[in-house]
Amino acid sequence: MIAAPEPSNLQAPRDTSSRSRPLPAPATREFANLDFLRAFAVLLVLLGHLSHFHGLLRLGPFNLLLMGALGVQFFFVHTCLVLMLSLERQWHDQGGKKLFVAFMIRRSFRIYPLSITAVALIALFHLPQGVVQPGHFLGVPFDAGDLLSSLLLTTNLTHRAPILGPIWSLPYEMQMYLFLPGLYLLIRAGRSLWRIAMLWALAIGLGIFLLRFPSIPNPNLLLFIPSFLPGILAYQLQKKTRPRLPAFLWPPVILALTAFFLGGSTN
Q: What would the DSSP string read from start to end of 46-112?
């Protein structure tokens, strides 16, 4: 299950003078390319589940099992970029006052009500929605701890299987949200890429280390941090540069990346 992303067209408020608002409010920006990326990610997740259910695991050189995973990766990048824009708007609305609290309240109310309702329905009616297999869906046996962990979206921290399979990515999103306000403050005043690029490089190195030594306990969030940080890099890049390439190149680029990803697996 993927959380509903923030709208990609964000309108900043009118500029007002205040000591807590040192930067002028940005102009209205619409990102049709982000709308396309979001729609394409949804399509990948949908087709990934459908192909798995119908037993279509490969198509020529392409591993169709990876479509859902790639769609989630696109969502992680998209979400980080859009939420950095949302934090920028929030800063110009309210300054730094209660930046973290207001941000987390919004995100919690955007994700938890629907996810709690879905998990509760699965548990109440024992619906087989834990795992999808060719031709059928399977439920997973669960106890009170599994249910609580799925409700709180902490399955990666407790190392329990979600009783609703598609919500596996939501714990990583919720936990990454805890860091986004701090990362926004880290890069807010400038346009330099070096800080976030260094964090990305360190996250990749840490992820490779953990993959090489899987016996080391970790909450698995560390393995997904490199998937989120490119969205923050994209946020910095859009502050530094103006679009120079024609818009019609964006869909072919995304399709080429998808083909490269799906064709790169031999399993």
A: HHHHHHHHTT--EETTEEGGGHHHHHHHHHHHHHHHHHHHHHHHHHHHHTTTTHHHHHHHHHHHHHH
According to DSSP, residue 29 is labeled B
* Per-residue confidence (pLDDT) for residue 214, from 0 to 100: 82
Q: Point out the residues of the chain with pLDDT beneath 50.
A: 10-28
CA distance 23 to 239: 13
Which helix H or strand E contains 113, and what residues bound it? helix 99-125
If phi > 0 it is left, if psi is from -120 to 50 it is alpha, else beta; for residue 137 that is beta
Contacts of residue 194, Cβ cutoff 8 Å, sequence gap at least 6: none
Distance (Å) of CA 14 to CA 11, 50, 93, 236: 9, 45, 9, 22
**Token representation of residue 41:** 């990610």
pLDDT of res. 240: 81
Q: Over 184-217, what HEC string results? A: HHHHCCCCCCHHHHHHHHHHHHHHHHHHHCCCCC
Residue with tokens 């969030």: 221
